[in-house]
Design brief:
- The chain has two domains: 182 residues, Immunoglobulin-like, CATH 2.60.40.770; 293 residues, TIM Barrel.
- It is built from ten helices and 21 strands.
- α1 runs parallel beside α2, α3 runs parallel beside α4 and α4 packs across α5.
- 46% of the residues are buried.
């Protein structure tokens, strides 16, 4: 995971991270001799980090497809620090026919523009956005039957799989007006009673989600609109166990999108009014490890004002929010003074507090780093992300990327100390090496793109041209190996005294 046009030594995972420790920050041990503790200053600057924050809306319609504008998308990231697009695709007019090849090509081209701009999509498909309240909430509502949805997903599968690297999360969609799974002609026994969903209809809905999960790479998420719908679909009202997080089960791979945040006591059906307290506790636990985001849909003071907004964004680990809707709610947050805090804290905001780093190491020997990190955001990163320790020779030449077996998806709000031990390649030349931390995108097409790497919220450590975070430390590799100490047959870096 090295910068473009620069030769890089890649170290196989078998060499890396032979020992991982995660301990509370309060248990941080004294710094041993030969190890330097570096302290880092925090930064309050807004960060254009991937897969979190405010999103901008962009629409494609089968009836009038319009290409995404690269200049507009690039400006979202560079001028507004926005890295997410709500990419809604309306398959209007296609409820009983295949998706035309021309539209599939159009969607692929739009994904390419998103990638070029350095953004990612919150993806959703729907068949209609005709407001049912204007027709008395009476059917027909205009969505497609299960057979059409299945056929369309089969058509879309190659395009979505090929562009999964620029999809942050896939909102389940397809069913009902706006793809919100409520006003539907086909996924409920009686469209005139859309709130009554039989087990047979739950099975049809589950199949849509299963098809979507099968298209996405392992570990990526689909999101549903309603908490009760998620519980029925996964077959459990018990929160996800810590040990099951990031697994292959439906529960581990399904998040929530709340499209009426703070609009009333239940967020207009996001929570069931009868099981409100239980569902809120459930979502607070589930959203630690699954994505949570959405938008407001109506002003409802005082509930929609700053005090409740700040409390519930934190409680439910919000990762993303609509920057455009609802304007009255957003205006209230501006007037109430909480907008800057929300902007900083949406999703993750990772920063270094201290690092314990060796001053001397040797080729073929182990090198241990110990990092105390704080997450000042509302949530941990939602998708898989590698962590690399970069060794960059001060004399010039190739950099070495050593993979650390650390899991940023577990870095929940608060602070923790993590330690990782890696083996320095035996053939690495002696000399002085600057240490840096790199958290790139795992996709090969994006791994060398600084826009897709995580910038830590520290002052004067980020490199815009590489996507590296400087650790402000130099390690000297000795010309000859240091005398090895061993633990369970693994060479360890000798502590210098």
């Amino acid at each position: 995971m090295c910068p473009m046009n620069q030769r890089c030594v890649r170290v196989l995972a078998v060499w890396a991270a032979l020992l991982i420790l995660v301990v509370p920050a309060s248990a941080h041990a004294p710094t041993p001799r030969g190890v330097r503790r570096v302290t880092y200053a925090a930064s309050a600057a807004p960060l254009a980090n991937p897969e979190r924050g405010w999103y901008r809306y962009i629409e494609t319609r089968a009836s009038a497809p319009a290409p995404y504008d690269l200049a507009t998308l690039t400006a979202y990231r560079t001028a507004e620090q926005v890295t997410l697009l709500y990419c809604i695709v309306y398959l209007d007019g296609l409820t009983d026919t295949a998706i035309p090849t021309s539209l599939l090509q159009h969607l692929a081209a739009n994904f390419a523009t998103v990638r070029q701009a350095g953004l990612k999509c919150i993806l959703r498909f729907a068949y209609t956005d005709d407001d049912p309240t204007l027709t008395g909430e009476r059917p027909p509502f205009g969505d497609a039957p299960p057979a059409t949805v299945a056929a369309h997903l089969a058509q879309l599968a190659p395009i979505i799989a090929a562009n999964a690297d620029v999809i942050a999360v896939w909102q389940a969609g397809f069913i009902g007006t706006w793809g919100e799974w409520y006003y539907t002609d086909h996924f409920v026994d009686d469209p005139a009673s859309p709130d009554v969903v039989s087990d047979a209809m739950v099975a049809l809905r589950r199949q849509v989600v299963d098809d979507e999960l099968a298209i996405l790479p392992a570990g990526m998420h689909v999101a549903l609109r309603y908490v009760a719908a998620r519980q029925r679909l996964v077959g459990s009202a018990a929160p996800l166990a810590d040990a099951a997080a990031f697994g292959a089960t439906r529960q581990a791979r399904i998040g929530i999108h709340n499209d009426c945040f703070l609009a009333d006591a239940t967020d207009q059906g996001t929570f069931d009014d009868v099981a409100l307290a239980a569902e809120r506790a459930y979502l607070a636990a589930e959203s630690r490890y699954t994505p949570m985001g959405g938008e407001s849909c109506a002003a409802n003071p005082p509930r929609s004002a700053c005090a409740t907004a700040l409390a519930e964004l934190e409680q439910f680990h919000w990762t993303y929010l609509n920057a455009e809707y609802h304007p009255d709610v957003l205006a209230g947050w501006q007037a109430g003074g909480c907008m800057p805090a929300i902007t900083r804290r949406l999703g993750y905001r990772l920063r270094l507090v201290t690092a314990d780093l060796p001053s001397v190491a040797a080729p073929g020997m182990a090198l241990e780093v110990r990092l105390t990190l704080a997450n000042d955001g509302y949530a941990a990163p939602i998708n898989l992300r590698p962590v690399y320790l970069i060794l960059r020779p001060q004399a010039g030449g190739a950099v070495t990327a050593l993979p650390l077996r650390l899991e940023p998806r577990t870095w929940l709000p608060g602070s923790q100390t993590v330690a990782a031990r890696v083996v320095v390649p035996a053939l690495l030349a002696a000399g002085d090496y600057e240490l840096l931390l790199h958290l790139p995108d795992p996709a090969a097409a994006l791994a060398n793109r600084p826009e897709y790497a995580i910038q830590l919220a520290n002052a004067a450590i980020w490199e815009t041209d590489t996507g590296y975070n400087r650790l402000n430390h130099v390690v000297t590799l000795a010309a000859v190996p240091l005398a090895p100490a061993t633990s369970h047959g693994i060479p360890l870096l000798r502590t210098l005294r």
